Amino acid sequence: MNPLVIAIDGPAASGKGTLAKRLADHFGLPHLDTGLLYRAVGWATANTGRMPAEAAAALQTADLDNPALRSDEAGQAGSKVAAIPEVRANLLKFQREFAHQAAGAVLDGRDIGTVICPDAPVKLFVTASLEARVERRYQELRERGADIIKPRVLAEMAERDRRDSERAAAPLKAAPDAYHLDTSDMDADAAFAAALAFISSKGFRSSGP
After folding, report:
1. Each residue of 48-91: pLDDT tens digit?
2. Which residue, 46, 47, 103, 143, is most buried by CB atoms nearer than 10 A?
3. 150 burial class (0-12, 13-18, 19+ CB within 10 angstroms)?
4. Could you give phi then psi for residue 193, rounded to 5 degrees?
């Protein structure tokens, strides 16, 4: 059996991160949230004075452990630097080396199936309606104690969608052979079951229980 590389793409709050972690655990594979790379570059640019391309070239795995990268501000900063071709080029090798591990890997982001791992045997494009994604992000931020109103979440997410989809460098889009998974009316368990069914149809099954 060839290495199982699972490429998962989709917009913010679509559920792709949760799904990626569950699939990685299920198949015993390493997982990389590639959005953290861009968040780390955005954070470094804002807090260390480095230029984005320089920050991307100097990125280390340990930099991804910074809890500040999980903030909404870091997400917005990451989306902005992700539009810079030099940043994407400097992070390409990092991501491809992670993907090409012996057993495979699970990567989630916005250009995994189209740019990073175009030959991945399993590609998923996870999406959901804007309304569903706004509600999820709003509840997530409230649980973190953020004082935020839903119209602001809507405005920021719509702007991020536009920026990610319209950027010249590796825009957010589904690979032609990706399985589209709309999670608007799904909980995490239903999304996981649907993804597993698709992966099984490609001939891959977990060796565990």
Report:
1. 989 999 999 999 989 999 999 988 889 889 989 998 999 999 99
2. 46
3. middle
4. -65, -40
| Residue tagged 């999820």 (tokens) | 136
State residue 168's pLDDT score. 87
Q: Are strands 179-182 and 31-33 parallel, antiparallel or unpaired?
A: unpaired
Nearest to 63 by CA among 82, 34, 87, 37: 37
Could you tell me the two tokens for 184? 């608007």
Closest by CA position to 14, among listed 136, 101, 139, 104 = 136
> What angle in degrees, to the nearest 10, is found between the helix axes of 72-81 and 150-166?
20
**Helices 35-48 and 72-81, axial angle in degrees (round to 10):** 90
Q: Burial, 93: exposed, middle or buried (Cβ in 10 Å; 0-12, 13-18, 19+)? A: exposed
CA distance 50 to 171: 24
The domains found in the chain, sorted by start residue, are: 4-201 (3.40.50.300)
